[in-house]
TrEMBL record, chains A, B:
Gene3D superfamilies: 1.20.1050.10, Glutaredoxin
Protein name stated in the entry: Glutathione S-transferase
Residue ranges of domain GST N-terminal in the record: 11-92
PROSITE patterns: GST_CTER, GST_NTER
UniProt source species: Oryza meyeriana var. granulata
Keywords of the record: Cytoplasm, Transferase
Role played: Is involved in the conjugation of reduced glutathione to a wide number of exogenous and endogenous hydrophobic electrophiles.
EC numbers: 2.5.1.18
Swiss-Prot/TrEMBL GO biological process terms: glutathione metabolic process
Length: 228, 228
């Protein structure tokens, strides 16, 4: 397959997502990164009921993002990133995941950490008040510092190339200004390495294209979590 | 690399696990399936404190299974299965995951369903009593029937070959007799397709070798969950 065929109109790629969905931002960044053209179908998560398309394409979880490729749906953001990498990374020779099994395992391990530790701590932090909020803030900062340890002195998580784990984590940065306002701290003081990484990621066209306005993100989350 | 080199002593493979850990059984089945020789180090999960080896090799989660290959640790059972497939599946030309990206995505989707839906429902079912137990039982049976739908009339989840999703789910079968005793039902009546699949899996040498005694499994879970 000629590289130029990647993202050609015959691929028929649709991404069903909501603009403020961090999990879905990953999918959109990955598609941009590999030059895959796609149709974006917005699913408004502010309304309770899911669309007929979501119910049909993801009957088990009824959630977005959903990638629809040639009429078949792929669900779950990490799962979709692997699929995108396997289908289009192959064609354009830009792989999101390293070819080295050990690096792949590390990237997947930390992606799981982001999904099952950082995300739930973020939710706890944003939902809570007083002592509970302080405890969640400390835990969240601890987890972000842990990720700084993985980053080390590299430009991106696995070296000089923006890849899988960068894509997994960077959507969370659209809440970083919200963290600072909600927790009254300066993330650049707490996690300077992470903030330098954030700035490098935000120079990527794919990231610029997808990440939403940070104030709008925090406003939305304030409504979601009842933050005053 | 010559196929016979798979599992050779120079690979230095160690699996740290507990005999009754369903997540770890996956790893041991996969290693047997691909003919990878390994050293088994038992971590007794009945005692509260983790060993020095576990704390050192999995400092983030302090859990097993852990695969140690050439001195480097890989953690998380699904992550380990992917690693095993990438390192040794390549060598022996028996792949746990299909080479087709869509089938791979489906296998990973359902693996995630087993880990994040079936497992938590099983825990809820075993921990609860009365109405709550009946509700959890209904949910668990619904999830198992859902998996029967994926199985369809195939011998294994993705056709005629025992593979990734079979390995992910089969350890749960060591609790099926426990489900029946705890919930007072006959799983062969409720999920006949799944029971036929279970029987086929249990004819595999790798599965026979790893799955524990079902009575011992249920006795252990009775202690863990305070079942009378």
């Amino acid at each position: 397959m000629h590289p130029m065929a990647a993202g050609g109109e015959h691929d028929e790629v649709t991404c069903v997502d909501f603009w403020a969905n961090g999990f879905g931002m990953r999918v959109r960044i990955a598609l941009h990164e590999l030059g895959v053209g796609f149709r974006f179908v917005e699913e408004d998560l502010r309304v309770r009921e899911r669309s007929e398309l979501v119910l049909r394409m993801n009957p088990i979880h009824r959630s977005v993002p959903i990638l629809i490729h040639l009429g078949r749906s792929i669900c779950g953001s990490i799962n979709i990133l692997e699929y995108i990498d396997e289908v289009w990374g192959q064609r354009v020779s830009t792989r999101l995941l390293s070819r080295d099994p050990l690096e792949r395992a590390h990237a997947r391990f930390w992606a799981d950490f982001v999904d099952h530790k950082v995300f739930s701590t973020q939710t706890m932090f944003l939902k809570s008040k007083g002592e509970e909020k302080e405890a969640a803030k400390a835990e969240l900062l601890g987890q972000l510092k842990c990720l700084e340890g993985v980053l080390g002195d590299k430009n991106f998580f696995f070296g000089d190339e923006f890849g899988f784990l960068d894509i997994v984590l960077i959507p969370f940065s659209s809440m970083f200004r919200g963290y600072e306002q909600h927790g009254e701290f300066d993330l650049e003081v707490e996690c300077p390495t992470l903030i330098q990484w954030e700035k490098r990621c935000k120079e990527m066209e794919s990231v610029k294209h997808v990440l939403p306005n940070e104030e709008m993100m925090y406003e939305l989350h304030k409504k979601w979590y009842g933050i005053e």
